[in-house]
Amino acid sequence: MYLSRLILNPRSREVRRDLADCQALHARLMCAFPQVDGAKGSARAALGVLYRAESDPRSGLATVLVQSRSQPDWSRLPSGYLLQFGPDGPENPACKEVSAAYAALGPGDVLIFRLLANPTRKIATRSGPNGERRNGQRVELRGEEAWHQWLARKGEQGGFRVLSVRARPCSSAGDAPGEVPDARVTPRDKVVGYRDGGAEGTSQQKLTFGAVLFEGRLRIEDLARFRQVLEGGIGSGKAYGFGLLSLARARE
């Protein structure tokens, strides 16, 4: 597994376009990876590509973190797409192998995490005439309580538990304070993009995703399931910058 960090050039026209269109950013990042012939599902899933665009808390610069099974070739990005630094500046792009760090994780480990997610649920799931179950419509979850419940369910499915160690009032007016997981939950602006919607690509379909940033502490309970979500991502919208679980060792 590889983890890359890209610091984008805010003066680049391509950067500004991509940051305003999640479909364009997805296509841009995927150009750094080899084509996958005959893969079931998307090339992104086959290559294990997950990413998150965010602002660096110190510099305010737009940064993209990219996790992948294959080593990317970031020289395929357009000239001037990445910000150039002097000899004393940070490496850009930066790419390191993280397989050993992931392999060192074990049950009971307590970790600091960050996750940009698209919390949703499916409604109106029905069975077809042949009894086959059909996918329902995916709708956005709203409100801090619903977001915490969503993350708890994902944790149960993914072999980890978000640690509950402090009380925090809910954000919506009228809700009473309650015991919630030790995680900051920050709603973000909608993530928007456009993709071809017509039969011949003559029209565009607008994509809109609700975005919530989770930051907190978790404990690994089932290592096999946790490794699956660490490599495969959490929730929906993975092609559009959601689902990457970033980890750091918690201090004793």
Please characterize this protein's 3D structure.
- With 252 residues, this protein is an alpha+beta fold.
- The chain has 2 domains: 2-101, 2-Layer Sandwich (Alpha-Beta Plaits), CATH 3.30.70; 107-249, Crispr-associated protein, domain 2 (Alpha-Beta Plaits), CATH 3.30.70.1210.
- 20% of the residues lie in helices and 33% in strands.
- The protein has helices spanning 13-19, 22-30, 43-47, 99-103, 144-157, 223-232; strands spanning 2-7, 50-55, 62-68, 94-97, 110-117, 120-123, 137-140, 160-162, 166-168, 178-180, 183-196, 204-220, 245-249.
- Strands 5, 8, 11, 12 and 13 form a 5-stranded antiparallel beta sheet that branches. Strands 2-3-1-4 form a 4-stranded antiparallel beta sheet. Strands 6-7 form a two-stranded antiparallel ribbon.
- A hairpin with a 6-residue loop joins strand 2 (50-55) and strand 3.
- Helix 1 packs across helix 2.
- It starts with a strand and ends with a strand.
Give the structure's gist in a few sentences.
The protein has helices spanning 13-19, 22-30, 43-47, 99-103, 144-157, 223-232, and strands spanning 2-7, 50-55, 62-68, 94-97, 110-117, 120-123, 137-140, 160-162, 166-168, 178-180, 183-196, 204-220, 245-249. With 252 residues, the chain is α+β, with helices and mostly antiparallel strands. The chain folds into 2 domains: 2-101, Alpha-Beta Plaits (2-Layer Sandwich), CATH 3.30.70; 107-249, 2-Layer Sandwich (Alpha-Beta Plaits), CATH 3.30.70.
